[in-house]
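User: I'm new to structure prediction. If I give you an amino acid sequence, what do you actually give back? Let's try with this one:
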Amino acid sequence: MTGFDLTNARGNPINRRRFVAGAGTGLAGAAALGLVGCGDDDEAEAPSESQSPQGSTQPTATPEPKRGGTWKRGAGGNISLASLPFQEAGTLAGGGNAAAAGLGLVWGQLVRMSETKLEWEPDHAKEWQIAPDGKSMKFTIRNDISFHSGRKFTTKDIAFGLDQLKNDKWKSAATAGLNPVAEYKIIDDYTMEWTFKRPNSTVFEFMSLFRMVDMDTFDQAAQGKLVGTGAFRWVSFDPVKGASLEAYDKYHLGRPYLDKIEYTIFADAAALAIALETGVIDDSALSADEAVRFYDNKKFKVTKLAAVGMTPITMRTDLEPLQDKRVRQAIGFLLDRERYQQENFVGRYDELGRLPWPTYSPAYDKELDKPIYDRARAKDLLKQAGFPNGVPTPIKINTLPIRAYSPAIAQLLQQEGKEVGLKFEFAPLEYAAMLDRFYQGKLDNLWIGFGDSGSQLSPMAHVRVSATIGNDIITHASDPEWLAARDALSNGASSPADYKRFNNAYLDSAHQLPLARGVGVNFEGPRVKIVRDFLGAPVFHKISVV
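Assistant: Good question. You get back a string of structure tokens that encode the predicted 3D arrangement of the chain. For your 546 residues, that looks like this:
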């Protein structure tokens, strides 16, 4: 095919350095790459022997997993289908939309992350060719994939999904934010060509997150009819009770070992933890306060996942008294992150810091990231801003009571504020109201309780996906240097100088104050063996009951 370099996943020329700098991946479940919700990221666990790279020496033969059985999972919040399939906003700690949004679960992927190393592998797409100028791509899909309805999957279905992303409904979704496709051309049922908006190194990340939806039932997803090409069929659903899924016998990567997956929704974090403790469910993520008693319980395996996103305090920069960045910076120095972690307001393994990047991102800066708690420095900044005797205008904090850390941290911040002359008032919101006002840019002065997820590997993708970094309407941030540094990364700048410029501008603007970068932890009982990829996402068709 003239003008293209053959680039299939088995002979992928993208080396580790280029991959990490220019393309990332998203996680599923509690770590889903939703714009608003919880996130996970930290260094990935080393692959287990059963997940060793192809060709490596095994000390002992790995027995064939047992077939059959049901994986019983817990969800800590109602399962909302209204935003699916292209948005994941609303994923709550403990499961939530993981019942429907997990990559490869109900909906398939064009490419997927290797189980053992930082590399894209084929899934629906079996090979691809990228033009030397990086402006277009030709790829071929498998001819043995069908939807759960039995209908054959073709390039027309990919085209249908791409057309849906033009709808304003999906503007805030990760797949819409990362979408590099300006035009597409269907060559035949199994071959397609994409022309990019710009030479775009996030195309593989987009391909991994872009879900393969059924055009015949797409408009019925919110009512509970989910038809995809993934490892499990969506069987039954109750928004307050849970969901049931069954193995798809004709799954193109092999019939799943499990027969069923059942999700049960629990009313609160404590009930979810008790269900795990008593064996009602097999595994779950847990809130930070409930997780404490499980860390050292030998009955449970503690699986530390790769992290994505963070828990931030975010600010409106267009409202008094936060229009002056020195006031915003002062609040940053009042955040006692180590105390928050010690008192279980953030997870035990979460990365404390002042930057949005995980420790293994090429944009990460160890020195700039060091947490700083300095009340005297905060007071001096307020003095520089013209408030030597305190700020008379109250600062409203929107809290999210369903996440216990949100009002708890707000109360600690209120105490710190009194010491330097800042008055904080609380304005609690329900989740739906906070989500609605968030995307309209109409929250109050600052808010605690909304995580801000993004790509954990690619700085470019992270900036494009992140709602509060990449969307001016949320924070109304308008500092010229900040906007220039952010846009440079968004458009592909990737040198150490570019990252340093971004980090300094980010800290100076202080419109977002990371509390911690969430490192997902899953607590797993002895009944189920959960196989995960390099970054911790479940490989659903390989999970089995022991």
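You can read the tokens as a compact description of the fold. Here is one thing that stands out. Residues 1-58, 89-96 have pLDDT under 50 and may be disordered.
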